[in-house]
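Suppose a colleague, Dr. K., hands you the sequence of a protein chain of 182 amino acids and asks what its three-dimensional shape might be. Before reaching for any lab equipment, you can write down a predicted structure in token form. Begin with the sequence itself:
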Amino acid sequence: LFNTLNSIASLISIDADKAEQAILDLSDLMRASLQQADNLSCWQQEKQLAERYLAIEKYRLAERLQVHWDTAQVPDQLPMPHLSLQPLLENAVLHGIEPSLDGGNIRINASYDNNRLQLTVSNPLPARTGRSHGMQLALDNIRLRLHSHFGSSAQLLTSSTETEFFTKISYPCTIKGPTGGA
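The predicted structure, expressed as tokens, is then:
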């Protein structure tokens, strides 16, 4: 919140239109965060919130933050726990992009096949010691909500290589009502 407010303050004199859009994006994120986290949302809403969050971070990090989406196979109405994608991206920015002077790429890959969502968020893994406790709390919270909504076959797993960190979500679900691509 404080980083965002500082970014908006600096944008006001440089680009008032961007500052206004950042305030609107922040407003939507704050409204979403005040809703009950145990509710179900849908892919379209979760992606839109994530895009708004990333737009705010882009104002702050500029070219240091690159984002690549490969999610066209995911139907808009696919059920997702409320605020499950945005915290993954926040972790990717906080732990993968911010510590690096050069920044890096965040990749979001998702598919829906055989009534199962497969979602992977990847980000650079800068050299560091220790693991952030805050990151684990966010992942544990999402994991609990996935299990609550989709049962024991829902998974949230993490892995890494020497240079990249991966968060993978997988869960079974069916879509009710009209569907569409994201």
